[in-house]
Structure prediction request, 428 residues.
Amino acid sequence: MVFYLPIEIIFNSTELVPYIILETSVLALTLFFNYKKWFRCTRIYFFFASLVSVLPMMYFVPVGAGHEFLLLPIAILPALLFHNKTLGFVMFTLVLVVFFVVLNTREMVDDIIQATPEQLAFFRNIYLAMVFVLTFTIAFYFRTIVNDFENIIKTKNFLLKKSNEEISLQKTEIETAHGEIKASISYAKRIQEAILPSDNFLNKILPNSFVYYRPKDIVAGDFYWLQEVDDHILFSAADCTGHGVPGAMVSVVCNNSMNQAVKEFGIRQPSLILEKTRELVIETFSKSIDNVQDGMDLALCSLNLNTKVLQYAGAHNPLWIIRKDSDEIEEVKADKLPVGNYAHMTSFTNHHIQLHEGDAIYLFSDGYVDQFGGEKGKKFKTTQFKSLLLSIRGLSMDEQKDALDAAFISWKGNLEQVDDVCIIGVKV
Prediction:
């Protein structure tokens, strides 16, 4: 409008000058709305202000001046102004309707401005040039937006592809590392299994017995230990600090210390074996610059199969005895100190128990009784464990092992196993 004003004054007349100034002011309000950040209002206002500003010119100026061509860039405006396709289509349709209404009603209104054919031809060229410039500007702006959008899409796709490649690479690295770790742990399992007594050795020296061993992870902190020395059989269920790989490393140290106490130092009495083992474990961990307080809880027995005299010493873990035809469990309590570094270390108590044929003894870690499960998700607890052992006392030792496993799995249900489980049962 501002550029058109001098052309109108020089080549036509001054009759439309007030109208053009008024139209310019009306359209200038768009800048004010935009400054106020009323963007939705600005788009709608600018569209209708442009349409209303052009309409009077269709009737004021004589036919042939080409004012109607100004509706063309206005018809393109909805595509740029409105993101809603339905609203844009409605506005575009409105411009078309107005265009055809103007074409069919212009001759019904008398021209306000009188112009010669030369002037009409001049202004028609001016309007065509304006329409071309406006249309080109709008199309160029639209093309710029499309190009920017395409560049954004390309950048996004590039980053997405790069991200997917990085994720794929990271996934491969993680899978490789996981495979290596799993292979290492599986190898550690084989090492740990190598230090555990074999089933053949167990069945040979304790034929009427079972070991229920259920690690929480691939490797365990719990372990069972078995040695035959002269006419005594030494056996133990041990629970080392932690589980998994850390627990397994501690179990190797503790297992080796027990072997040293018996084989190198020739100790046979359970309480003295525990004290020597404690000494060796503390000595091993004291070589570290860190203050390692790891150790183990265990029940250790020495059984003379000839006299059926059982010696027992325990670190936190008790000994349970079910006498033949008894409905109660006889418990021999353990000392309340671990095999490891402890603030108030004292000597372990050595118990002598006379067994009789048909009696059964049980050593165990705390993994079974601490398992969560059942309908309320609570711990299995010692009382229920005693009731279970009493209910299966008439079964063979192999059948007792199967019953313990079935009860554990049923109790645990879908819950995670919380700790390693180790139970040794021996019937005299």
In short: DSSP finds eleven helices and 13 strands in the chain.
